Amino acid sequence: MTTDPYQYLEGFHNHHTSEALPDSLPKGQNTPQKCPYNLYAEQLSGTAFTVPRTHNQRSWLYRIRPSVVHEPFSPLQAGTDALLSNFANAHITPNQLRWDPFDLPQDGEEVDFVTGLRTVAGAGDAATRNGLAIHIYHANQNMSKRAFYNADGDFLIVPQHGRLDITTEFGKIMVHPNEICVIQRGIRYSVDLPDGPVRGYILEVFGAHYELPDLGPIGANGLANPRDFVTPQAYYEDADNEEWQMVTKFLGKLFVAKQNHSPFDVVAWHGNYAPYKYDLAKFCVINSVSYDHIDPSIFTVLTCKSDTVGVAIADFVIFPPRWAVQENTFRPPYFHRNCMSEFMGLILGDYEGKTGGFQPGGASLHNIMTPHGPDAAVFQKASTAELQPVRVADGTQAFMFETSLTLSVTEWGLVKCNKVQPDYWKSWRALESQFSATQI
Ligand SMILES: O=C(O)Cc1cc(O)ccc1O
Ligand SMILES: [Fe+2]
User: Fold this and answer.
1) How many CB atoms lie within 10 A of CB 356?
2) Which of 77, 93, 327, 424 lies most in the core, judged by the most C-beta atoms within 10 Å?
3) How many CA atoms lie within 13 A of 136 on its CB side?
4) Shared-domain flag, residues 239 and 296
């Protein structure tokens, strides 16, 4: 067993093997009549058994007790109905939306990573495995002896404030702001808060898993490199007669069951369905070195593909620190209308497209075909700036959840969170005609 539990296996979607005790993985087969150390063998399937090999994902877990050893589930009264997994009846608006930073837990509020989840927007339905949800989390309590799994889809977690110390069935992961973490459907985990209160964003996909984007003519390297994705190593707790709660998000509702032992009792595992994290500072940025503003797809970290080639259910895109060197170019984001919806958040610093109002911990949404672009002040400055090579966005990290689906906004997101900026539309009001029929 490794002494430091925060040691990682490198590589994206590799077929890993990991043992917390020597020879705890069965040799040459998955289900021997008796497993080493009298462990139970359990398969966790992340794709249908019959999915082609290129996309098939599953892991084998060798554990002290099988996961099925728990009492029946009943609804968890979490004091909030702010989770959603079907967006048929949520609010719709074609307006540009922007949110002030979402609250950290307020005085007197006690929330953990699960009870502090709030759905802001989404599309589709987890029951038919089509669509996505965007959540904000805020928490000030360790989950301690409460574990969680999401039956609805995969979580891509984007911490904005405070580290997350995540114990999973596969091992331990420490995630900092400016790192992201993916925990797939069904995987059990518990989140503690080593720095105190936390806040962040989550992109949940209902139908498929995250992949690295294809690189096309970029070649075999660049953007997020596969070796920089890391997966925890096997780690187990052998605790009897402890009271544990297992919470699940099942079609957007929380249920809880008791069990008398730690769910983190996996001594060894192997497979390619396992959680991972990635440090956004490792992103190899590629961009124009001649002229023009390149589309933000060039900054895609991970994508969840739809069945239509080239069209994503959801892309996770970042706007990382980099050099801007383009000549004769309006360098900030252009004005545009998109057949995709763009939900943006800010982890640190400022965003190059806006002069104020878009703050760390806040968000914006420009839905399908909703026009947007640089605000008037950014436009003015960038249209006249001297075009030296400049560092863009040092000390900053904005990101975008981009989806081909039309996003609806929840009651919490539009009303109850009380963070929507009514004057956002005014960012563009000062963009007056500069037209002259006489060419100059
Ligand atoms: O709207 C935004 O700020 C995101 C964005 C950035 C960019 O560089 C080009 C297009 C785009 O949608
Ligand atoms: Fe945009």
Assistant:
1) 9
2) 424
3) 31
4) no
136 in the same domain as 60: yes
3-class SS at 396? Answer: coil
Query: Which domain covers residue 322, as residue numbers?
Result: 286-427
Q: Which residues of 384-417 are buried (b: 16+ CB within 10 A; e: fewer)?
A: eeeeeeeebbeebbbbbbbbbbebbbbebbbeeb
Residue nearest (by alpha carbon) to ligand 1 atom 1: 373
Q: For ligand 1, say whether the CB of 354 is within 6 Å of any of its atoms.
A: no
Does a structural domain hold residue 432? Answer: no
Q: Domains in the chain: how many in total?
A: 2
- Residues with Cβ < 8 Å from 415, sequence gap 6 or more? none
Q: What is the pLDDT of residues 300-355, one digit of tens each?
A: 999 999 999 999 999 999 999 999 999 999 999 999 999 999 999 999 999 988 88
176 is annotated as an active-site residue: no
Q: What is the pTM of this model?
A: 0.98
* Model confidence at 1: pLDDT above 90: no
| Contact between residue 152 and residue 202 where contact means Cβ atoms under 8 Å apart | no
What is the whole-number distance in angstroms between the Cα of residue 34 and the centre of ligand 1? Answer: 56
**In the predicted model, is pLDDT for residue 163 greater than 60?**
yes
Confirm or reject: Cβ of 372 under 6 Å from ligand 1. yes
C-alpha distance from residue 83 to each of 115, 251, 416 (Å)? 10, 9, 13
Q: Is the CB of 357 under 6 A from ligand 1?
A: no
